[in-house]
Amino acid sequence: MPNSVEGDIALIGLGYVGLPLAVEFGKKRRVLGFDINAARVEELRNGIDRTLEVEREELASARHLTFTNDAADLANCQVFIVTVPTPIDDANRPDLTPLVKASEMIGAVMRRGATVIYESTVYPGATEEVCVPALARASGLVFNRDFFCGYSPERINPADKQHKLPTIVKVTSGSTPEVADQVDALYASIITAGTHKASSIKVAEASKVIENTQRDLNIALMNELSVVFARVGIDTAEVLKASCTKWNFLNFRPGLVGGHCIGVDPYYLTHKAEQLGYIPQVVLAGRRINDNMGRYVARNTVKLMLKNGIDVPRSRIGVMGITFKENCPDTRNSKVVDLARELAEHGAEIVVEDPLADPDEVSHEYGIKLSKVSSEHPVDALVIAVGHDSYRSLTTDEIKSRLRGSAPVVADVKSLFDRHALAARGITVFRL
Question: What tens digit of pLDDT does each residue of 361-384 get?
Fold first, then answer.
């Protein structure tokens, strides 16, 4: 039986998922945090986490945690935990390249008795069908004799200061019953909320992918209802407020669904289903709805501008927020980008701002130069796309000061503000 909970731990990938995990383990045992981004490693060595998930003091409390971007340093580790991204390509197909490269890197340095635990979101079967062969090829070792695997899906919710790693129940699994017990014990040592040992790796993989698929579908339903209610002429937020008085009504809200989880994970499930000869209907319908909401908001904003007599091609439109969610600097798969690009196609000057997003990253990834929407340079229409706290605290007067003309438009995507108060200031309001 392998000593999977003994020896140094290597954390592969130090993003939103890997760093909090490295810190928690690093408070109790020796951990080597690895990332291919040398600048990221250097920042962490200096106590800086640009994802804002871990405070400087907490990072310093992980006394047994060190960082590297040199794969050769991993050779002394016995447990490897992989938390690399699992994105989709332009055709919405799973891109397992980071996962395969991480597995090959580990395989090249791991020794007999090593245990490799994956946390990256995948489709059911990916660990054993894709990762294990990569480990075996690179190492020359035999699976479940010379090395072992586990899967424990990440449940990190970026920017959520209430639900943090130790307080979220952790699903665990292993490639043999003995390894499953050891992986479970490993996580139980840092997770105060407890663990749930799944019956197999595939079950654990599936549990993660359907968590986000369920959220995606519920938000898609709300988004579709918002389209219907707009045609009826009633406000979605007011309808939901009434419906929430029933004890078992699920309080999902319409919105832009981006990021590296909810907007991505369902495609991993549909990919596997299609491989097995089944075309999922409901899941893909939800994805189509959510993928189009950015453009839907942009088109409705333009319609109201035209209705108000604004010359759209000669107008200036402000977009507040470009991250995929509030109070988080992550811009991956942000649907605000779709919104901004749709607005730009109408010939307007688009001014995009975000207090948390990295301007260089936004420019590199999306070709958008971040600026500032202000009273000194007011706009004809304002799209408040992300619910950052700094935006939620704005007063009606502060919003009005950023607008010009006699009939400006505000698209309040997250329904942050009192639409009647805005209307009383001569502002036409659209919201989901």
Answer: 999 999 999 999 999 999 999 999
